[in-house]
Structure formats: C-alpha cells, structure tokens
Amino acid sequence: MRLKTLSVTFAAALLSIGAAVAAQRANTLTVYFVDVEGGQASLFVAPSGESMLVDSGFPGDRDADRIAAAAKLEGLTQIDYFVNTHYHTDHIGGVPQVVARIPIRTFVDHGVSVETADTPGTGRGTMQAYNAYTPIRDAGRHIVGKPDDTIPIKGLNVHIVSAAAVTTTRALPGAGAANPACAESVTKDDQANTQIAGENGASLGMVIELGRFRMLDLGDLTWNHEHDLVCPRNLLGPIDLYLTTHHGQDISNNPVLVKAVAPRVAIMNNGSRKGGMIPTFQTLHAQSTLLDLWQLHFGMAAGAEHNTAEPLIANPDDTTSHYIKLSARSDGTFTLLNSRNNVSKDYAARR
C-alpha cells in the first residue's frame, strides 16, 4: 500500500510539473537570435508551440546547423512558418540546408524578386539564392505577404507592415498619432546606391505581438521606406524590442523611425565586419527610451567607444557562435539571455 501511495504521489508530481511547464509555454514567446555571421535567422516559438523562422542565413552547413541546434533546444520537429524578408543570400541562402535538417510547412515571402541579376561586386548572389529557394517553396504551402496581412501563427499577432517596396498606410491598433520628429527627417536617394535599391527596399517587415509585448523586425528595409512607416503619422506605435534594421547599417535605421517607435531594448544582428556602423550606434545611444543595446557581435569598425557593454555582446570575435535568447510574456515583461556567458536581464512591462 505504501509503494502504491508513493507511486501515485510521484505521478501527481510529474503531472504538476508538466502542467507548470505547459502554463509557462502558454504565456511565453521564445525567440533565438541565431548567429549567422552578419546575416539573419531568428527562430520564434509561440505560446501555442507553433514556430516561425525568419530568414535562414547564408548557404552551407554552418548556419543551418546553428538553426537546427536552436530548434532542437525547443524540441521542434518542424518549422510551421518560414518568413523570408528578402532574397539576398545572407537571408535566404540557407533554406536548402535547413529543410534537409527540419521540414518547413509554409513559406511566406514578398513574391517575385525585384532583382533580376546578381549585383556585381557586392557578394550578393541574389538570383542564385532565389533560384535555389523557389522550387523548395513551391513544393510546400506558399503565402505572398502584403502590407496589412497577418501571418496566422497561433498565439501571436504578426502584422506585415512592408513588402515588395510598399509600406502600410493603415495604423496598427493604438498607433496613428502625428509624429513631430518628421520635421527633422532627411531623405536618401534610394536608387543612387545599389546597396539601398532592389531587394533591401522590398523587405517584408513585421510587428510581432504577444499581449502587451511588441517587437519590430523590418529585415533590411531602407531609409526612405522606414520614414514612410512613421511619417507624417506613426503607423507602428511604441515597440519594446527593436531588431535593428539591416544589421545596423546606416542606410537603414532612420532616426525618425527609431524616435517614433521609442524602443526600450534593441538587438543588433551584426557581424564582426558587417553592419554595426557608427551612425547607427549614435542613433541608438541617443534614444532616451533605450535601456539596453544587445549585439550578436562586437562591431570592429565602430570601436569600443560605440559598441555596447561587453556582457551584452554574444560573440566578441569570429571564433564563437553564441545566440541571444528572448523570453517574452503576454503581460509585457521580457527577459534576454546571452548564451556565451549566461548573463540575463529582466525588463518590466512598458508603462
């Protein structure tokens, strides 16, 4: 009888633990910002357990292995939604290798590539990556995302605010106020620089929400399109976590956008020698609402005086591949973790 009582008690304890884990999952959005050396790959796991991978890093095994490792940490057996922000190789190149490791059910992108040839001298094999991606995409379910569409991942609100060089003209709920910072705005000639034109400006950008928590990911959206999202009215509203646009390059991260969304925390998905430009650091450091800047890499060109504090940098050099992990809750609180040193920081809900 005693053994039976102990067994029942142990089983009840296991059920209690399982219920606690399920309750935590039901209230938590988990995101792994995977180090793909200056590209992008962000793995979202919604409270429902459904997953969304935004971009896939570069071609080859390196980045696909890192993405698969993050998926394994969450016990994923498939990716429910793959969202491609745009067709440059540092964002789309890894898809063939990723699907060889974990299946993808649904592909979301902005449609046909606006670039029709590889751009000489830039290292961007756009059409090579696009041509490798499209047969894989077309073998699954495919959604062409447009501004004002939503991505139907259970447990999250994922609003598309830009795609195919078009930005939304409709304010998100709670947004839409006039933006006085627009008076300071300057424009850049998007067509004068091949680094600005083309697929970067066509980026599929999103606001991702879990209850009171709000995150902004605009891919590599360019300066003038960023302006259009917040001028003359701020169509996006306040943001808790801003994934810096275009790896922290200064042809994006328009100060008028940063001021408008007033981020509390920013993560820069830069490489050691890519992105992380001084003007972007200056824009972020000047933002009065910003509590912390986290970085995937130390930006060598910017120097120690502009990079964030060392504990908040996942990879101080090119010898490691650590990620940054976000745990966000529906009450608006969230936690960031640096996997290199296990430094974590909790953030209160936005007032």
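(ticket continues) Second input and output from the same batch:
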Amino acid sequence: MIDSSFLSKIFEFELINGPFVFRKFTSLKRASPEDLIFISSAKEAKKNSNIKVAAIITTAELKEFFASHQKLVIVSDIGQAVSKLSYQLQKNNSQPKPVKISNYPNCTISETVLIGQNVKIGANCVIGPNCIIEDGSIIGDNAHFKNNVTVHNDVIIGNDVIIGSGTVVGSEGFGNFRNKNASWDHHYHLGTVIIENRVSIGSNVTIDRGTFEETVIGSGVIIDNLVHIAHNVVIGENTAIAAKVGIAGSCTIGKRNMIGGMVGIIDHIKTADDVIISVKSTVNKDIKEPGVFTGFMPISSHSRWKRIAFWISKLDKIVKLINIKNF
C-alpha cells in the first residue's frame, strides 16, 4: 500500500478529508475501493460522485460534484499530475542478462538472448538471436520468436505463438496530452499486453501496452508485417490484419475480421464480428454489423471533408428522390 504522503514528493495538491493509502493508481473503469483514480470532467464527476475508491484526483472546479465524505486530491492541472504520478509508478526493470540455457532445458534459445528477472518460458520454445525478454513476462509452450524480438515487462504470451523479427510487444503507448502551456505531457502506461494462443505476428510489428488495462490479441489472430496496434486495443479471435495497418488506442475489433493493407482505424472504434475492411480504407465510425466495408476520401480541409462525406452518404437517396434510372 502507498501512503498519500508519497504524492507530495511529486506534485502540489490540496487534500480534502484527510490522508489515505492506496493499492494502485488506475482508471475509473478498473477502480476498486483501494485504488486512486482521476476524474477530469463534470459528466464523470456527476455520474461517479459517490464511487468507492481510496481517493480521487480532480480539480477545484469539480469538487462540488462529489459526496461530502469523498477523499479528494485537488490539483490545478489533472493531466500534469497524472503524467508525473504515472512516471513515478512505472516498474523499474532490471537490466536483462545473457540467458542461462541450462535454465530452459526443454527449449532452443540463442546464446545472445537477454532475459530479465522472474521470466517464465514454457516447453519447446525457440527463441532466436538478440531477442530481449524483460522482467515478469510469461511465455507459453511452443513459442517461436525469430531474431531481434523485444518483449517488454509483464507481458503474457500464450501457447503456439509465432513472432517475426524486429517485433516489439509491450512498448510504451502514445498517450500524450497538452498541458496548460500548450506543450505535451506524456501519460506513462502501467498496463500490459496479453497475446492468447495460436497467434502469428509478422516482422516489425509494434503492440503497445495498455494505459492501465491490457492490450489483448485474441486466439488465432494473424498479423502481417509493419502493423501498429495501440494501447488498450482488443483484437477478437481469428481476425486477420494485413501489412501497414494502424489501429489507434482503445479500439475493439470483433471476431473473424479481415482488415486489408494500409487501413487506418481511429481511436475508440468498435467493429462487429465477421467484418471485412477494404484496402486503404479509413474507419472513422463504428461498424455495427457484418459485411464488407470501404471508405476512401481525398484529403481536404476538415470542414469541407465533412460536407462532402455527408452528401456522398446521401447519394443513393438523392438518386431515388429525383428518379434517375440506370445511375
């Protein structure tokens, strides 16, 4: 448990309703009674005014929304406080060391592999030259890592997983936000990555760790080369992702999706099961039913783009309205 006095070493704040202890700093979604969270909007404050947590980091403008007994950490800039606290709470990894092959008698591991502390590796694994596996990671049976794979701390990888050369699993996510000075602060990621069974990942793929939760790659997923999967993304089982796809943070991709090459999916998108997305499409809204979907738009000013997109989406209705035949 961490005492609230720890926070005074990191940023300035006003404490309401006395000191407290907390087990971990986490998201509102994952909060338990022993956790420290942050709430930054009036909507969230109203909805969670009486939430059972150790304490809440918030602002003076929002404190009126919370119950009178609630323990509050009042700061002037929530983003900056979150940035500084998440940085301090990052795990301090040990320096990975050359592998002792005798520790893994049922595996084929190159002598140039580096392994951190408390790493577990299952039976019949093949780990190629120059791979790095950091503290606390767990790898199941029959894994095959090609050259120069990096697995960051506390990643969980299931059975029968293949990872291509140069791939990075558990990298720091792109969680940045502007502070009051209009410069960038980074929200350090305290979550992890879970890769389930029978997953095949190509070369030079990057899979970011979750902010507080997990980035999840479901069983049977196949991923081509040069794909980026951002923090908190969940990929449904047996989905196929072609080369140069970029999936932004907190997307949920359904089961058995097929995502064509160079597709871009913006943050917080959800897709249904059995969706096919055409090559080079941009996905900027949820896909709520199975089927084949395509989205191409030339770049223009955003306001003009929205007007064009609106009318394109209405073309079939316009045609019917003016009764043009053989359009």
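Agent notes: The first helix runs from residue 42 to 47. The first strand starts at residue 2 and ends at 3. Closing as not reproducible unless the customer responds.
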